[in-house]
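subagent[fold] <- orchestrator: predict structure for attached chain, return tokens only, no commentary.
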Amino acid sequence: MYLHIPLVLFLASTGTVDASLLARSHDSLVRAATRAHKHAVKRSAVLARDLRLTFRDILAADSQQQPASIGNSRVYCVNSPAPGLTNSNGTNVNGNRPTGTASASSHGAFTGTATTTASAGSSTSSPAASSPWNLVQSYQGSSFFTGWDFFVGGDPTNGIVTYIDQPTSQSANLTSINSAGHAIMSVETTPQVTNTRQSIRITTQKTYTGGLVIMDSVHMPTGCGTWPAFWSNGPNWPAGGEIDIVEGVNDYTNNQATIHTNPGCSLTSGNSSVLGISGSVVGGTNCAAAQTGNQGCGVRASQTNSFGAAFNAINGGVYAMKWDDSGISVFFFSRSSIPSDITANAPLPDNWGTPMAFWPAAGCNPFTFFNTHSAIFDTTLCGDWASGVWGSTGVPGQDQSCAQLTGVSDCATYVRNNGAAFADAYWEVRYVQIYQSS
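subagent[fold] -> orchestrator:
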């Protein structure tokens, strides 16, 4: 989402909001071979349970789910790069240079700068047993922040934040690795500020065209005025496409996944049953940013614990985004229902059941409208979306408007004068993994 200003107008009336390579023949062969395997692990279908009250149980759950460690607005077409994971210098892992290069944009134009850490996070090219997906990048533990660029500057979506570099964030205790080995990304909680609060936005140095991205989080930012997101973006927005995997504002409890593209991409239906998804289409089926006021086409999750405080109350869970020849899918698993193949680093998406969201290739070729993506975390405050629905209700979790709940008529005034209210505006992330098909 280059800018969300048109989204604000849309939300006011609907309460909703947003986020080629040719098909490779050997992928089909691999998938066919994989289906012949008899070692696929079924995921358990148990209900999401509440966060345990005892510290021992939290640690036990954490240990059980932890995976094994692995040692701007102008619309025009660009050529798709060669598939595979690439370094920030534009070369992929085997040294080939793609036909395009990544640029940081989306969720607003890149108006700041980026600071770069020394090297990428841990990676491997070894295939996981009985899975067609190879783990090529893992961000986890004490080295989580290695391999990310820190965006520096004002928020492109007009939020009341200033994004800061890594040394500044560490000095301000806004980024850290906690005792559980999880990455923390927080927002400044100084009681009053005259203009903006410091916050974090990070982008992977590695890029990918096609793949499987898995993110495990136990806590995400929540509360009136917050707008967190985990998403991915390509170059020359929206030509390289944008995929919003986790996104919402204020007190929302249901996640929204959205894509934004060049003209020509659309959902094949607005009907969830026809699409084979558990979520609901919001905002229409045209995904072209230029033709929808930058809104794109979104899908809201049916799970009322997939975002915000409700997500945090169940100790979070896993989001997975699959980008392959079939299209683009987003899955959500609460903490108690994470498939065992994910925790074993041998993901089997064909066994995961109904996705939360799916944009079929029949309506939107995933290698024509998307390329050279980086994964991104950010937290802004207010901004075009959260400010635009400050006085609104009708979205799951927002039975009362933030104006009613806070007694403050506008988002910016509230953010600047209530630092303590943002004690829960932090990400706690266990890992991010990037897979590529074999």
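orchestrator: received. Logging for downstream: Residues 1-65, 68-106, 123-128 have pLDDT under 50 and may be disordered. The chain has ten helices and 19 strands.
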